[in-house]
Amino acid sequence: QVQLVESGGRLVQAGDSLRLSCAASGRTFSGCAMGWFRQAPGKEREFVAGISWSGGTTYYADSVKGRFTISRENAKSTLYLQMSSLKPEDTAAYSCAASIRNLYQSGYTPRNEYDYQYWGQGTQVTVSS
User: Fold this and answer.
1) Which helix (H) or strand (E) holds 27?
2) Could you give the CA distance from residue 101 to residue 71 in angstroms, rounded to a whole number?
3) Cβ(79)–Cβ(22) under 8 Å?
4) Cα separation of 94 and 36, whole Å?
């Protein structure tokens, strides 16, 4: 079991920056690939960013590349998403997710939500224009 709790979401203006955090507890966090997903009202959940267990490999959705940065601190069992140059279309509920498949596998960074087994409850980010 991995428990995930997101925080940091709030109402911001377009162009602002925001950092989301995801605190993990329970089973080993350090060996898990982690991801951020988001879901806007009326839309399907979409991949935002992913990171391998060591942090050495990251992937981003094209829509956020160059604006968002995913990182992790295994010693603190915490995942981050630094978001900058926010746009109204970034408005969504953001969730972190953990994959217990392929623990400690170098470079393993799934982008499909079905490869993640544990999810947080989400934190709302609203970007006003």
Assistant:
1) none
2) 19
3) yes
4) 7
